[in-house]
UniProtKB/TrEMBL annotation:
Residues 51-427 form the Alginate export domain. It holds the Pfam family Alginate_exp. It comes from the Bacteria. InterPro entries: Alginate_export_dom. This is Alginate export domain-containing protein.
């Protein structure tokens, strides 16, 4: 019996990981060695091709008491969302590849009907062709994108509808550098079937490189260009052309791990100049004690606009960030803020993790507003004149009973501060089952 357990453990260690972007999974080596292990991953339409099939099912229930601090309609019985994903990954020899993915995202119970992040009944989420040579790889078509920590470019896993782009992407290796260049346009979603459209009012282009850091860990250097024909800030609305330069240091050494990032932005908005910046840090220490407790502190700041009447925009733009930037409650976005976010994680068993956290949040400039996770303006500049936005508490239990299955329970409470004016406390409950195969 012990021998069987050891063999199963060894087999699971060599199985390709289920990745955030499913196109990053590569079953070629596995199928060459164990073609019967996962039959739907090792199909052979022709002698020199490999077809892998997979997908996902996600069910989520969430209930929010006094949504957005009482500013949005109350969902009487909560919201139930469903997400179904199917994909096919076809490797044609050693160089060519076709990838297609279909997604259905459905929501019920939202007051006023389903919103765009909740529902997209049926759509082709990804369809691209890829050509790979020795030192580079070219990908053209509709695809999900995710770079670095997701602070600027993320697939947006938290909401029911994930983000996608029409893009051309080149990946390569040059010495110790892994680099990626891209040109992309986001999609504008609707809630029906096959009714989405490419958003021609926005464009993204850039370059991202990763190498080993001089002392320890890894180093990222990147540039993004971004254009938005209909940008909106507390200062007003207009055409935005923004350039972003950034660097990230991340890694681990002994019990310590770190993820620090500095970003500077410049450009033009509605005839005026842009000057913005952000500093983000996440530092953790893992104790050699029962339950392997991990204590962490995330400290972050992003610039705001000091004077909405001077035609100089100081508001930071996080471009296409993850939806739950600060917490699963997803109330606030990374613009004109500073926060302190301590948290504690406990590994109760190898499959069961408990995380508790606090988030203290302020706005940086009174002359700028308070923004939501999608960049929407929640409170205007100077109103009501305080910097302190509020405090959030959350507890998260994650259980991974076996490969592909994840069950999550989250409770959160938001205590609004004086910067929000007449606002109510908000309670949040989320229960999720996700199966990926």
């Amino acid at each position: 019996m012990l021998l069987v357990s050891l063999l199963l453990a060894a087999q699971s260690l060599s199985t390709p990981a289920l990745t955030k972007l499913r196109q990053d999974e590569d079953w070629s080596a596995w199928c060459a060695d164990k073609p019967q292990g996962y039959p739907f991953k090792c199909l052979r339409p022709t002698a020199d091709s490999l077809l892998s099939l997979g997908g996902e099912v996600r069910y989520r229930y969430e209930f929010t008491d006094d949504p957005v601090w009482g500013g949005e309609p109350q969902d009487e019985h909560g919201v139930f969302t469903q997400r179904y994903v199917g994909f096919a990954d076809w490797h044609l020899g050693s160089r060519w590849r076709l990838f297609g993915q279909v997604t259905s995202a459905i929501a019920d119970g939202r007051a006023g009907g389903p919103s765009i992040p909740d529902q997209n009944r049926l759509s082709v989420q990804q369809t691209f062709v890829q050509y790979g040579a020795k030192d580079y790889r070219l990908t053209l078509g509709r695809q999900e994108l995710n770079l670095g920590s997701g602070r600027l470019l993320d697939v947006r896993e938290g909401p029911n509808v994930r983000r996608r782009f029409d893009a051309g992407v080149v990946n390569g290796q040059l010495g110790n550098w892994h680099w990626q260049g891209l040109v992309a346009r986001p999609w504008r979603f609707k809630t029906g079937s096959f009714d989405d459209r490419v958003d021609h009012s926005q464009g993204l282009w850039g370059f991202y490189g990763t190498t080993c850091a001089p002392l320890s860990g890894n180093l990222d250097l990147y540039y993004f260009g971004y254009r938005n024909e209909h940008a909106r800030y507390a200062q007003g609305q207009g055409v935005e052309l923004r350039h972003t330069l950034g660097t990230r240091l991340f890694g681990d050494q002994g019990p310590w791990s770190w993820n620090w990032e500095f970003i500077y932005q410049f450009g033009r908005f509605d005839g005026g100049d842009i000057g913005a910046w952000s500093l983000a840090s996440d530092t953790r220490y893992r104790f050699g004690a029962p339950f392997a407790p991990e204590l962490g502190l995330s400290a972050n700041v992003a610039s705001g606009d000091k004077n909405p009447n001077d035609h100089k925009l100081g508001s930071f733009n996080a471009l296409f960030p993850r939806g739950n930037y600060f917490s699963e409650m997803a109330l606030l976005g990374p613009r004109n803020f500073y926060n302190l976010h301590p948290y504690l994680g406990l590994n109760l068993t190898p499959a069961l993790v408990l995380t508790t956290e606090l988030d203290f949040y302020w706005r940086l400039e009174k002359g700028d507003g308070i923004y939501g996770p999608a960049g929407q303006l929640l409170r205007p500049a100077y109103s009501p004149g305080s910097r302190y936005v509020g405090t959030e508490f959350a507890a998260n239990v994650t259980w991974t009973p076996r490969r592909g299955h994840v069950l999550t329970a989250i409770y959160g409470h938001s205590f609004p501060g004086p910067a929000l004016g007449d606002a109510k406390d908000e309670d949040f409950l989320e229960l999720t089952w996700q199966y990926r195969f």
